[in-house]
Amino acid sequence: MIIGIVGCGAIANIITNYAIEGKLGSELKYFYDCDLERAENLAAQVNGTVVLKIEDMLNYVDLVIEAAAPSAVPLVVPKILNSGTNVMIMSVGALMDEKFRLKLNQLAEENNVKIFMPSGAIVGLDGIKSASIGKINKATLITRKPPKSLGKTLTEKEILYEGKASEAVKKFPVNINVAASLSIACGIDVDVKIIADPKVKRNMHEVYVEGVFGSFRTSTENVRCDINPKTSMLAAFSAIKLLKDLNQNFVIGN
Ligand SMILES: NC(=O)c1ccc[n+]([C@@H]2O[C@H](COP(=O)([O-])OP(=O)(O)OC[C@H]3O[C@@H](n4cnc5c(N)ncnc54)[C@H](O)[C@@H]3O)[C@@H](O)[C@H]2O)c1
Predict the structure, then answer these.
(1) pTM of the complete model
(2) Is 205 a known active-site residue?
(3) What is the CATH number assigned to the segment(s) 125-223?
(4) Residue 228: CB within 6 Å of ligand 1?
(5) What CATH architecture applies to the domain 2-120+234-246?
(6) Residue 172 has pLDDT above 90, yes or no
(7) Does residue 51 have its Cβ closer than 6 Å to ligand 1?
(8) pLDDT of residue 194
(9) Is the per-residue pLDDT at 174 higher than 90?
């Protein structure tokens, strides 16, 4: 597969580094970023091609990874789908709007292509997908991050938000993709608490899900990306794993 990427920041850097090691199983070839220098830096590492607009890669790629920003999703994803190209969306917060999500799904159907949403920084999405075959009654998320990851300078712990995921993604759009992933996978607007805690060094997520299947709790302590401390390394790894699975005959997990 030939891959293009939109957004050449933290996630794209990790994917590119992995591609350099020759283990991706696909060719990461086209790079687009509104900051041209970022695209040039990454492209240079894999002998890739920089494009000045998304349209310039669409005839040459099998899949585009969106790793830019929630605001980029409505700008680029419909174009990608309409060109008959598969897309992987990292800025999951943009998909909380159900009307928009259904519109993208319809475009994918019309163009016979797929939209992939990797599990990102959350753990347990496999279990949630299985659980969703029965009814899920309750899902909660507690996110605890160092203040810097939430754009704050604090010396004491502070609860920044308590409420529904749909509101959380509006208030913390680049920080709470996990709330969106969880809500979309569960099919409910989950209850979210966001805590800025100077005592923690990692991005931490505690998930609780209850339904016909029983219940489970997951706890994640994510190492942050050097380039962007808001982003967890696991999110980039999940994109890489999903990409690799697309080329595998033996796929583990749902
Ligand atoms: N699904 C998850 O669990 C998860 C986890 C972490 C991050 N994310 C999301 O993935 C996305 C990428 O994360 P990152 O840490 O690599 O971000 P980053 O800020 O490090 O890099 C984003 C890059 O995209 C570029 N960009 C922004 N808007 C653009 C546009 N409209 N067109 C072209 N380029 C654009 C920026 O210039 C920047 O270089 C973010 O939206 C982030 O919230 C999702």
Answers:
(1) 0.96
(2) yes
(3) 3.30.360.10
(4) yes
(5) 3-Layer(aba) Sandwich (3.40)
(6) no
(7) no
(8) 94
(9) no
